[in-house]
Amino acid sequence: MTDDDAGLWIREYHPAAPGSVQLVCLPHAGGSASYYFPVSRALAPEVEVLAIQYPGRQDRRHEPLVRDLPELARRVHAVLRPRTDRPLALFGHSMGASLAFEVARLLESQDGVTPAVVFASGRRAPSRVRDERVHQLDDRGLIADVRRLSGTEGGLLGDDEVLRMILPAIRADYTAAETYRYVPGPPLSAPITAFTGESDSKATVDEVRSWQDHTTGPFDLHTYSGGHFFLNRHQAAVLSIIRTQLAGVRAGSRTA
What we know:
By secondary structure, the protein is α/β, with parallel strands linked by helices. It is 39% helix and 14% strand. The protein has helices at residues 3-9, 37-43, 69-80, 95-111, 139-149, 154-157, 160-179, 205-209, 231-246; strands at residues 10-11, 21-26, 47-52, 88-93, 118-121, 192-197, 219-224. The radius of gyration is 17 Å and the shape is globular. Residues 24-212 form the Thioesterase TesA-like domain.
């Protein structure tokens, strides 16, 4: 993996203190790295936020889309491997949470690196499967589901030119998320902290609680009012928990 490759995938919006813990932020379906700009601003300089930009959107819109979540995990893992000399944590929302889990599995199994924490937001545990087929709907049906979840501003979806640009990426991400199936294996050693909205139609509190089955380390669950994008309303509270959990992580504490 070259520096140019890393530059395509990783966005660093704010400078961080030397030796600070890295927080890898993985977007939801249809999302982009810029969703995490406010997170980077809030946590810098104590935490170095690495926002991941998937192919097929914004400045990467001309690159081939990835419709397979394990393949996307392999690519993200390849980008992160050169950075495992310092502590890192993973945060993912919705599809990004499943991706964070699979990247953490690769780090632990292939590199002997235990992430400081895996933060799973707005996503049921990998072992809790639903038969979802929104990705097979026509464009109108797909747009309706995105609007229902309030993940993308309605104004963007009403702009025909913007819509033509982002709809392929949304469909590819929905395909990756809905066709993903957990392959049973050893649980993570990394702690898992899960966040969810009490009225999230995509993940019940019980489904999110099952994340505890995927780690031998500590597990925490935090619930908030709201639906799938409860983060938009409760960002400060969620970031406070992240900041507290990462406060004790120091450079040089790489674990195997």
